[in-house]
């Protein structure tokens, strides 16, 4: 067997495809990483990296070995966690997109506690790509608007449904004329209105628009009567129930989905599987509740 420390160094370097970033994560020098990789290549008799122009690239053998090492390290990490303390004492760390966390997940945490009383949740608000190892996150709830790695276990939990929402006062004779309103845009979903236009078949006739940095700011602006926002069905349930906002056109699927991501198989950890099952049920309940309004 080659040195286990060299295998560990390779796994980090392969994950980053960089000796420099591997050295930073491992708190060693670039030269130390390079020496460990060279020793591993000599022990295996194959080149794992191709070095050129001060950059490194995985060879075919290196890419295959990376998958094996990643799986082994994940299983080792899980084994250590299980030995270190009982499962019921471990908090499940969940990363969730900020607006979805504030408007949907946080109000339902007590529901999860009632359903799974032996599992504690720690919640982080974040979006986009995630490095599970460096962030110490167990699960990430994301929309599939970016590509995650092949070594990431991804389970679909709900299709995205969207609709224009506004305060009732913007209706004229019972209708909402989008060409006469300011369409509220969000930088995190710049194509939201165009996706809705394609999905609903409703043309947008070059209306005026105002952009906000975050999704929740866009929804707040809509609640203040500043225009019409494109909203996810999972983020406006309370506003629709109490009629602070209305969705005159109804909700349509925009072609995207929400996924729960994990660095380990869900079946390998009953806490992950429990959260996955609960999440699917709660998202379905939200859709049914709004359909019944």
TrEMBL record:
Q: Show the Pfam families listed in the entry.
A: HTH_1, LysR_substrate
Please state every residue range assigned to the domain named HTH lysR-type.
2-59
- Asked if the keyword DNA-binding belongs to this entry, the reply reads yes
* Disulfide bond in keyword set: no
Q: Name one GO biological process term.
A: DNA-templated transcription
Provide the GO MF annotations for this entry. DNA-binding transcription factor activity; sequence-specific DNA binding
Q: Which InterPro entries match?
A: LysR-type_TF_proteobact-type (IPR058163), LysR_HTH_N (IPR000847), LysR_subst-bd (IPR005119), WH-like_DNA-bd_sf (IPR036388), WH_DNA-bd_sf (IPR036390)
Report the Gene3D superfamilies cross-referenced here.
Answer: Periplasmic binding protein-like II (3.40.190.10), Winged helix-like DNA-binding domain superfamily/Winged helix DNA-binding domain (1.10.10.10)
Protein name per Swiss-Prot or TrEMBL:
LysR family transcriptional regulator
Q: What organism does the record attribute this protein to?
A: Undibacterium parvum
